[in-house]
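re: ur question from yesterday

yeah so i grabbed the chain u mentioned. its 148 aa long if i counted rite. heres the sequnce exactly as i have it in my notes:
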Amino acid sequence: MKKILTILIVVAAALSIATTASAQTAGQSGGSAQTSEPQAKRGHVMQDILAKLNLTDEQKAKVKAQIAKNAAAIKELRAEVKAGKISKEDAKKKTKAMRKDDQQVIKAMLTPSQAKKFAALRKEARQKNQTAKGAGGVKSGGNTPDQR
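ran it thru and got these structure tokens back, copy pasting raw so excuse formatting
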């Protein structure tokens, strides 16, 4: 049980690193706090979704490897943006493509029942995000509707 918990924590940390890097890239591109907040939450949302899928040790290892690969690539992109080698917009597009790649790799390794649950949990998370955006309420650091 401790081994599974440790693996989940490592996967969660890798997800957090990847999404923090992408959130910082978005924040550096002049996005508002409200714009970058959902990006910062992506890692936690994915972490929660993966925890609910009851992944095997092999699946956890594959997820961890995939996320670590893209986390390193995102870190490189951030360095390239700082060095002026790539635009912030291009880095954001590449980061989005990496996240999509993560999703495809994760889906490919799931059993049919896990894949169905994964899709349902992602849909639920997207709906919650849209509801929060559509409510017009102020999120921490966000703008009220009349300030936009």
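noticed a couple things. The CA atoms of residues 100 and 143 lie 29 Å apart. also Confidence is low (pLDDT under 50) at residues 21-40, 137-148.
anyway ttyl
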